[in-house]
């Protein structure tokens, strides 16, 4: 009998929220939580809604851009007390647009402190400069890497943020320490970072921001990371992924139709949460269980009303 590998993922939860423009509110439609102390957070989140501008989902709804909270307080995150009980120290809200309509907000909840090393970065355009700069970040155990990153800018096409900007699609970089495409690879090697995901936030054809998830093998933000990109015929094709060295997690020959989470996000054009590992495809559910995965999300990227890509994250 195989025993599941114990992991210590930084991601403690993920939620989807649906805006009700007529009522001026945004309501939670689904949520998945894990880890010690998460039951109170789960109960506090059920049937929850916020007015525009209120809480993290309401802030994303009002601004139409990602909102990253590096530290939680009751004003910005009304569930802060329950979040602290679950070890959550930071949160991210991502808008999902279909043409000019906000159709969903996805919130991620992150652990931090001793035993957790990783980063979430928000890169956005610099005023009067045609390049991306670090607008906000959450670093856990990566203070030196964070200080260096504040002084880095990326023109279009340069580095991971620049690639995502130019192509308006997600990208997974495996083996950061030896990657020529990750311009901070020396800092990544010193910090023990192993893999990164770049994800675009698009409104119509406009890039509003690039999100980066930077993971170590010991406390990954996502143990499984995949990018599925629309090919010449319009169908999604596997465009790279990382299982952080776990055999059987990545199947480069799989089709999007064989991965139910990706297929559902493609059909609905909406984010999909899952805690059934069969959503990764029955052929690799066993490998996912052995690696300690329990849940994940498939995030669509829509550009000018067309599905450009799906990013799959599981932890």
And the CATH topology of one domain?
Beta-Lactamase
| Corresponding CATH superfamily of one domain | GAF domain
The first-level CATH class of one domain is given as: Alpha Beta
The percentage of residues in β strands lies in 35-45%
Structural class: alpha+beta
Number of helices: 8
Would you tell me the overall average pLDDT?
93
Shape: globular
> Based on DSSP secondary structure assignment, what is the total number of beta strands?
17
State the strand order across the main sheet: 3-2-1-6-5-4
What gap, in angstroms, lies between the N and C termini? Answer: 22 Å
Q: How are helices and strands ordered from N to C?
A: EEHEHEHEEEEHEHEHEEEEHEHEE
Uncertain spans, ≥5 residues at pLDDT below 50? 1-5
Short note summarizing the structure:
Pfam families: GAF_2. The protein is α+β, with helices and mostly antiparallel strands. The protein has helices at 38-45, 55-63, 80-85, 143-149, 159-167, 185-191, 260-268, 285-290; strands at residues 11-20, 25-33, 49-51, 67-70, 88-98, 101-111, 118-126, 129-140, 153-155, 171-174, 195-203, 206-215, 224-230, 236-242, 272-274, 296-303, 306-314.
Write the layout of secondary structure elements.
Blueprint: E1 11-20, E2 25-33, H1 38-45, E3 49-51, H2 55-63, E4 67-70, H3 80-85, E5 88-98, E6 101-111, E7 118-126, E8 129-140, H4 143-149, E9 153-155, H5 159-167, E10 171-174, H6 185-191, E11 195-203, E12 206-215, E13 224-230, E14 236-242, H7 260-268, E15 272-274, H8 285-290, E16 296-303, E17 306-314
Antiparallel strand pairs: 1-2, 1-6, 2-3, 4-5, 5-6, 7-8, 7-12, 8-9, 10-11, 11-12, 13-14, 13-17, 15-16, 16-17
Domain GAF: 39-117
Protein name: GAF domain-containing protein
InterPro entries: GAF (IPR003018), GAF-like_dom_sf (IPR029016)
């Amino acid at each position: 009998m195989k025993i599941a590998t114990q992991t210590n993922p930084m991601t403690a939860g993920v939620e989807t929220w649906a805006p009700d423009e007529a009522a001026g509110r945004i309501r939670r439609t689904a949520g998945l939580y894990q880890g010690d102390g998460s039951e109170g957070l789960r109960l506090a989140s059920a049937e929850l809604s916020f007015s525009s501008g209120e809480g993290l989902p309401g802030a994303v709804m009002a601004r139409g851009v990602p909102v990253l909270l590096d530290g939680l307080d009751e004003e910005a995150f009304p569930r802060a007390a329950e979040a602290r009980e679950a070890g959550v120290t930071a949160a991210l809200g991502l808008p999902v647009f279909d043409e000019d309509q906000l159709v969903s907000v996805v919130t991620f909840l992150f652990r931090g402190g001793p035993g957790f090393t990783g980063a979430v970065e928000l890169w956005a355009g610099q005023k009067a400069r045609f390049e991306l700069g670090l607008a906000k970040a959450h670093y856990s155990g990566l203070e030196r890497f964070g200080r260096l990153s504040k002084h880095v800018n990326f023109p279009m096409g340069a580095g991971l943020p620049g690639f995502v900007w130019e192509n308006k699609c997600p990208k997974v970089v495996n083996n950061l320490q030896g990657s020529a495409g990750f311009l901070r690879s020396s800092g990544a090697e010193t910090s023990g970072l192993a893999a990164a995901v770049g994800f675009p936030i698009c409104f119509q054809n406009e890039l509003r921001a690039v999100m980066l998830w930077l993971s170590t093998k010991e406390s990954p933000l996502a143990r499984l990371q995949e990018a599925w990109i629309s090919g010449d015929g319009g169908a999604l094709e596997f465009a790279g992924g990382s299982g952080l060295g776990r055999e059987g997690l990545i199947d480069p020959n799989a089709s999007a139709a064989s991965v139910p989470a990706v297929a559902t996000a493609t059909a609905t054009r909406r984010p999909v949460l899952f805690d059934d590992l069969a959503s990764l495809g029955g052929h690799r559910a066993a490998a996912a269980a052995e690696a300690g995965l329990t849940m994940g999300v498939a995030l669509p990227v829509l550009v000018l009303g067309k599905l450009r890509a799906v990013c799959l994250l599981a932890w």
